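Entry 14. Ran structure prediction on the chain below.
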Amino acid sequence: MSTVVFFIFAILAIAAAWGVVTSKNIMHSAL
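Output, structure tokens:
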């Protein structure tokens, strides 16, 4: 059970980090 929770948390963390990097790249390209 804890493994599944950790797996889901890892996916959310990676998705959040990827979203931040993508938003930064969009802002840089817009500027």
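The mean pLDDT is 91. Will compare against last week's run tomorrow.
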